[in-house]
Structures are given as structure tokens and as C-alpha cells.
Amino acid sequence: MESEAGSLYDGSCEVVAALDAIAGRWKLPILWRLAAGPVRYNELKRLVRGVTNTALTRALRELEADGLVERTEYPEVPPRVEYALSPAGRALEPSLEALVSWAGSRARGGVEVRRLAPDDDRTAVAQVYVRTWRAAYAGIVEQAFLDALEPGAWAASLEERAGRTWAAYADGGVAGVCTYGPARDEALAGWGEVVSLYVLPERGGRGIGSRLLDAALDALAAEGFERAYLWVLEDNRGARAFYERRGFAPNGDVMEVEVGGSPLREVRYVRGLTRRS
């Protein structure tokens, strides 16, 4: 037993490395926010709620010294300082994600993920679509279009895919929703598709998106699909980083779409599926 415990510190255990990395206060939320991509200092302070300038600066310096975070300063007026995970920091992402999921579940009463039931409130589920669209597309498409979004249309479409929709419930309400099914793209007949995955902005950081995605991928594998794909907004760096951590990779396909009169580009992400025993 002593030899096994000692081997935890021989550098081979990613979980121990992650725990060491977050030993100081604020380091876990800082690393987790940076996992989505480079972030400016002021934006990072906004995302890590409650942290002071002094605490944030100290934590970033320590993470830099540990080789987990890289700092880039751009010669602008005023200077723009941006932080990002180093390669060593990115290597800890799977363990960090597990810790964030566990901590969120323990701190906030847990999350229930289950298939959408016939008697579930479709309007409450559809509200997740409306609110996440308004957050995701703010500043990208016309605000009038976002303000006019109504849950009714989504609630009706849920009936078509209710049997292939997973919902997450937390704090007494719907926190996220994920729909999947056979590929709608004829060019990828025989593939599975993650049609949509949405989590309320205020419920982020609790592992809800990961649990919903895992449920959808497991269901596709159980149906016999060996590969799956999804589309993600090209400029949504946070979502792209999330899918990359979950084993997806871009395959080079790009699709031009129009949302509220604004032209946007989506990229296709793909991955293989493994049926769990």
C-alpha cells in the first residue's frame, strides 16, 4: 500500500497533478475558464465571480511559474494582456473537467439527466433553447430577432424527437437539453448525429453538458452507430474546445447558415463511438 501511495507522486497520475495545480484558492475556476480558450485579464475577472484583482493576479503568476498558464501582452494602447493554458495545462483538462463536475454536483445538490418523458413540460425545456440562443448569439445577430424568439416552435419540434432527447434537471428546473438521432445529412448516411446541445449559461461549470453529451453518444452507440458528427458555430471557441475535449475533431466541412438575417459559418466535428459494456 505504501508503494502504491508513493507512486501517485512519480508524475504519472494526472489526477494528482490536477489536484496539485489547484491547491491554491481560485486556481480551479481560473484553469477551467482558460480551458475554453485565451481570455483577456478583465474578461477573466468577470468570469471568475468573486475574485479580487490581487487574488487573480497572484493566482495567475503562480500558475505561470508552474508552467500551466501562458501570458501574452499585445502592444496596444492600453496594453492588452491575454492568458491561455500552456500545453502542460491542457494535459490536465480531463481531470479538471471531472473535478469541476464533481464539485458542482456536491455543492449544488446534484444533477439528474434522463430521457425526456411524455409528461415533461415541453415549454420549460424549450425555454432552454431560447435563453441559450439569446446568450450565444448576442452581438452576432440582430437583437430584435433574439428578443422575438418564442419557445412555442421548439416545444412543437420536441415532439418529433422526444424519444431521442435527454434533459438535465438541477435546482428544481430544466438546466440543459440534448437531442440526437440518425444523420440528417445524406452524405453521411449510417452516421449518428448530435443535433443540438444547450445548457443554461448560469448552469455552466457543473458538468451538465458533458453528461448530456455522454448520454447521447452512449445511446447512438447502443443503436449500432459507429461514428457521430455535429455542427458548431465556427467562432464559438468555447463550444469547440468543449467538443475537442470530448473526443471530437473538425473534418474540414463548413456550412454557411443564416440566423436572423446574419450570415454565419458552422464547422463539422466528428468522432468514433464505442459501445460501453
Task: Write a concise keyword list for the protein shown above.
single chain; 277 residues; alpha+beta; Arc Repressor Mutant, subunit A; Aminopeptidase; 2 domains; 7-stranded mixed beta sheet; 12 helices; 10 strands; disordered N terminus; WH-like_DNA-bd_sf; Acyl_CoA_acyltransferase; ArsR-like_HTH; transcription regulation; transcription
Report on this structure.
By secondary structure, the protein is α+β, with helices and mostly antiparallel strands. It folds into two domains: 14-106, Arc Repressor Mutant, subunit A (Orthogonal Bundle); 112-272, Aminopeptidase (3-Layer(aba) Sandwich), CATH 3.40.630. Helix content is 42%, strand content 26%. The chain has twelve helices and ten strands. It has helices at 2-7, 14-21, 27-34, 41-47, 53-65, 87-90, 93-107, 122-136, 143-147, 151-161, 208-222, 237-245, and strands at 39-40, 69-74, 80-85, 112-115, 165-170, 173-182, 192-199, 227-233, 249-259, 262-272. The strands form two sheets. Strands 4-5-6-7-8-10-9 form a seven-stranded mixed β-sheet, sandwiched between helices. Strands 1-3-2 form a three-stranded antiparallel β-sheet. The radius of gyration is 20 Å and the shape is globular. The model is unreliable at 1-12 (pLDDT under 50). It holds the Pfam family HxlR. This is GNAT family N-acetyltransferase. It comes from Eggerthella hominis. Keywords: DNA-binding, Transcription, Transcription regulation.
